[in-house]
Amino acid sequence: MPLVNTGELITSASTARSAVAAFNVITLEHVEAVIAGAESAQSPVVLQVSENAVKFRYGRLLPLAHAAVAAAERAAVPVALHLDHVQSDDLLRQAPGAGFGSVMYDAARLPYADNLSATRAAADWAHSQGLWIEAELGQVGGKDGRPPLDAHAPGARTDPDQARDFVTGTGVDALAVAVGSVHAMTTRTARLDHALLKQLSAALAVPLVLHGSSGVPDDGLVEAVAGGIAKVNVGTALNVAMTGAIREFLAAHPEAVDSRKYLSVGREAMADEVRRIIGVLSRTSA
């Protein structure tokens, strides 16, 4: 079926107090696994390509983007395409022509006033192109190998009053909030600040996004959705599943050289993880 707009999926989920899973993809195997897992779960899904993934692919956006579009158009469930953690204005401007319906513009590393100004300019341009735009306030941490901030450090959590002003001042369509999750976690031990999340949900009129969700236990994800999260970003969990499956296969088959043999195992493991996470998000909080 045709690509759907991320904003349509997230707005619908937010209204229903549910959440859409958004998975970061790096290879064609990632793309195929996410779609296969979503089809198995009979659920819409968001394919995300990050700026770091583009850098990995020699700085070229179109090869992976075109592959994702082609796969999505043949999917049996609604699929949206999202450009994630964009810091480069040049990359941002490639999004519409590459098939993306949404972007996450990441200026959270900047001081608040600069973040607001840069994000407002990005949002104005994105909206002129028909793009739905997400931003981040507070620091989720763990990106590009950087350690997470201490829980009590300034900027480590999103302040509800500042978030309200930020959303009003920038005009973004969704906000990624810092409530205790960390990017690139390989253990599921993150403890979310659910009280803060409820305050943010009450303060803001736009859907909320959780980054670093791979490190959050299942019950924490369920409670986060009940608390107002409408988009759940997952990346590392897929890489853990893929790498673990490939390692196990190669250990059992040291003679293997045909990459299709182990890539298919890795792809299947990722599809299983996609299906599992979507199942978790479909649960309701007790």
Number of domains: 1
Q: What is the topology, as strand order, of the major beta sheet? A: 1-2-3-4-5-6-7-8
Order of H and E elements: HEHEHHEHEHEHEHEHEHH
Extract low-pLDDT stretches.
none
User: How much strand?
Assistant: 5-15%
Tally of helical segments: 11
Structural class of the helix and strand makeup?
alpha/beta
CATH topology: TIM Barrel
Second-tier CATH architecture: Alpha-Beta Barrel
CATH superfamily: Aldolase class I
End-to-end separation in angstroms reads 35 Å
Number of strands: 8
Rounded to an integer in angstroms, the radius of gyration calculated over CA atoms is 18 Å
What is the CATH level 1 assignment? Alpha Beta
* Biggest sheet layout: 8 strands, parallel, barrel
Mean pLDDT across all amino acids: 92
Helix content estimate: 40-55%
The geometry reads as globular
Keywords: Metal-binding, Zinc
Cofactor: Zn(2+)
Protein name: Fructose-bisphosphate aldolase
GO molecular function, one term: zinc ion binding
Summarize the model shown.
The chain has 286 residues and is α/β, with parallel strands linked by helices. The chain is built from 11 helices and 8 strands. The protein has a single domain (6-281), classed as Aldolase class I (TIM Barrel, Alpha-Beta Barrel), CATH 3.20.20.70.
